[in-house]
Structure formats: structure tokens, C-alpha cells
Design a protein that fits this description.
- About 15% of the residues are buried.
- The chain has a two-stranded antiparallel sheet.
- The termini are far apart.
- It has about 160 residues and is mainly alpha-helical.
């Protein structure tokens, strides 16, 4: 601890006090770390678990124009799964940033269009070690565009087409 040029007390950073970098942080000492695997979306039971989780998240949101089922009905559950890969931390970051944007623009509810404008950014988490697998891969925002079928009305099917 020292006094800087303005007369303000300044504390040394916590990382400089670590001997070998492996000491537990205050948060790590107070709480048990629970490793959560990503949600799956392969069966009806997996989908139901994902939707239950989204319902819980939805119930905790405090947006002025929040609608029941905003995250858990329609195409939103599938959209959120595609954006986050079922990773709870990515979902939390997307929803948090989406809520901030919804409040800033006065919309006060979440939509796919609003969330499409949000990039999931984990660069602000310097305590995570990407080499150790602490930073999950962020799925692409790009949705697969369905190819439009070709109009076959004017196709010549030849003599075989006329027979049947």
C-alpha cells in the first residue's frame, strides 16, 4: 500500500501478491466451483431441460416490457441454443448484454433481432485461461440460410413426364 501523487491510498494488485499464481482467490475460497457441461438439444428431455432453464432466467429478468415466454417460447429457445451452444456462461453473457441494449434503446424486451446485434465477447475475462479450456468456443452468429427451391413449373419433363 502506498500513497500516489494525488494523496490517494493505492493498494497493490492481488496478482502481485501471489507466490506461484496458484493461490485461491477470495471468491474461490468462499464458494465451491461447479463445472457445468453445456445443455444438449438432442432429445425432448434435453430440450425440456433447456426450456426450464430459460424460464428460470426469464423469471429473473427485470425489463419493463418483459413478456411471459419471451425466452422460452416460439423459436427463441432454439435461437439461444444456436447462439450459445447450450453453454450457461455464454447464455448469461448474451442475455446480460441484450438486456443492457434493450434498456439503452428503450425497447425493454428481448427479441431475436436485438440479440442478433449482440456479439458474445469473452475477451473481457482475463482471469480465464483459453489454453486450459476455460474459455468455451463461441458459436457463430450466422444462421444457415435455407436454400430456396428452384421453380420447376416451366421444366420440360419430356415424353415420360406427359405419360404420368
Amino acid at each position: 500500500m502506498y500513497v500516489d501523487t494525488t494523496g490517494q491510498w493505492t493498494l497493490a494488485s492481488a496478482s502481485s501478491r501471489r507466490v506461484n499464481g496458484l493461490e485461491a482467490t477470495q471468491t474461490e475460497r468462499r464458494f465451491d466451483l461447479v463445472e457445468l457441461g453445456p445443455f444438449r438439444y438432442g432429445s425432448s428431455a434435453n430440450i425440456a431441460a433447456w426450456v426450464r432453464h430459460l424460464t428460470g432466467v426469464e423469471n429473473a429478468l427485470r425489463l419493463l416490457d418483459a413478456r411471459p415466454g419471451m425466452l422460452s417460447t416460439g423459436t427463441m429457445p432454439e435461437y439461444l441454443y444456436e447462439r450459445t451452444g447450450g453453454v450457461v456462461g455464454l447464455l448469461e453473457r448474451l442475455i446480460e448484454d441484450g438486456c443492457r441494449e434493450a434498456m439503452d434503446c428503450g425497447q425493454e424486451h428481448l427479441t431475436e433481432a436485438l440479440l442478433d446485434a449482440i456479439a458474445i465477447d469473452l475477451d473481457g475475462s482475463p482471469a480465464r485461461d483459453a489454453g486450459a479450456g476455460e474459455v468455451p468456443p463461441v458459436p457463430s452468429r450466422k444462421r444457415a440460410i435455407a436454400k430456396r427451391g428452384r421453380n420447376t413449373v416451366f421444366d420440360d419433363r419430356g415424353p415420360a413426364g406427359e405419360a404420368g
